[in-house]
Write a structure and sequence with these properties.
87% of the residues lie in helices and 0% in strands. α1 runs antiparallel to α2. By secondary structure, it is mainly alpha-helical. It is rod-shaped, with a radius of gyration of 18 Å. The chain is built from two helices and no strands.
Amino acid sequence: MTAVKEVEDAMGQEHALTARQAHISDALTNAERSFETYQTKYRQGLVSFLDLLTVQTQTFDLQVQKPS
């Protein structure tokens, strides 16, 4: 019974990890789009440099978390 429980737990963890990786991938795609938008707006003088850096930092944070 212990072995069955361990296998079930491992499968649950694998499923959770897969879902987390998909979420991070989606978030990174959105962050990259947002960063591009902020770059354009910064060049047009519509957002501050601090706003651009904040979006860039968020994008980098997600890139670090993304699985290889």
